[in-house]
Amino acid sequence: MREGYSILLELSDADPFFDKKKRLLNDMGFDVKEIVHIKSSLDRDSLSTTLNQMLQIARIIHLDEVELYFGQIGGLGFYSPRKEMEAQNFILSLIKSALSHHVRMQTHALQDLRDALINRIHELGTEFKVENKTDINYKCDKEKCLLQWAENNGAKTRLQIAFVEGAGRGAIAMEDMEVGDIAMEIPASITISEDLVYKSDMYQVLEKIDGMSSETMSLLWCMKERHNCNSQFKMYFDTLPENFNTGLSFGVEAIMALDGTLLFEEIMQAKEHLRVQYDELFPALSKDHPDIFPPELYTWEQFLWACELWYSNSMKIMFADGNLKTCLIPVAGFLNHSLHPHIVHYGKIDSTTNSLKFRLSRPCSAGEQCCLSYGNFSGSHLITFYGFLPQGDNPYDVIPLDFEVDQVDTMVECPLSNWTTHMVRGTWLSENQNIFYYGLPSPLLDCLRSARSQMPFTKTLIKANMEVDKEILEDLQSTFNAMMENLSDMDSVDRESSSWDVKLASQFKEMQRRIVSSILTSCSTGIKLVEHELSKCKAEE
């Protein structure tokens, strides 16, 4: 009988990228159901080896489409800080579960493994810690009233609200908190969801409309309830801004400044969709039911305000009865987004306490802004629906490529060659800084190589393959040169006097130019490298 403990790490067969992840696991010598055996006693080297093995598997299990496509971030050994934290916390949960099942046994090895993992979480948090400054002159009277109201209704928090420079209102830790600590707990009874609509007089009207979603009903309920002086949620509505300043509220100048960018298309499509949705409902509802839908409360401007409220503040919450609902969570809306969040998993009501708990996945120091992750969103999505660009290099700022190639799956050596869509991002995030991939995503180059050459492309740089590479790089260079021309420079914009939306449009364009510029640099460097190798081949002939 083997001494020690066993921990199972399993890739779900329901994972949408099961086949790709399975190949990655198999290439590293792992199965989709990998049992890691832990000796009852571990020396320092064995402990490190075991932990690294478990993290390798956990990283792959938690990958999303973008991370699978681009691979690990160069020099870091993992895919993104957020995903590394997810993998670490996943392993930590398995270790804690194993400890709970071996309470009567000597568990020194598991405890040592847990402590070593927590140290790594600390190190990761320290490496990517963001310093924030708060504005001591900002008065948070309304926010303090909301906190008091929430606490009177059963909420618990170790955070206070302050104005954070560059981020607006945010949640600041009042004390040092560790991994696993609960920063905030909100009872389900003070969440705003579709359940409130079902109890209102408007539900009998809205339920008869074909295609009426629960989210739209909740949005329409808020448009009226925000003006109700006797509302249970008056304190909450009083803290909401008159303007959310998301991309949906961009003015003409900002929109025109975005011409030629992905963000321009995203904002225009979103606004068009919302306008069509509004016109399908109003003024008809106000004419037919003026007592329920007063026309002065259901204007286009107020509809857009409510849309921005729900886009920027709502959360998907799984309730104890198994129903997934889109909700507004008073107080929790002050938690800002970060690429390196403290809180990642927060979308499930605890059935024991009937509350939503915001548990830390990494430490948060007193005075530090406590952040969560809104999701794996690009900068264009965050601007459109939330009204900001995150600090740092966002691994989800990708540029999709629209082209058709045949024989995508003819590659022999590339395990991830069966991609039907392709994309690029800033090459400073790429691990492939070598002569085979020139800092560009390997699935893209493998696909283009496969389409242009009948022979399997090997890492032996023979002349024919180098000529194919040169053609590919020149074509990509031409494509991105044209893209750069569309991203006209905005140096002439006066940042100080510009409106908030023009400033944000300018920031987005700068980010896009930086991505395209890095790709052009990689193409240019790659062409020079290939030309050098071709000249050497010619000299040897």
Automatic annotation (TrEMBL):
Keywords: Methyltransferase, S-adenosyl-L-methionine, Transferase. One of its GO terms (biological process) is methylation. GO terms for molecular function: protein-lysine N-methyltransferase activity. Signal peptide: none annotated. InterPro entries: Rubisco_LSMT_subst-bd_sf, SET_dom, SET_dom_sf, SETD3_SETD6_MTase. Pfam families: SET. This is SET domain-containing protein. It comes from the Eukaryota. SUPFAM superfamilies: SET domain. Residues 157-375 form the SET domain.
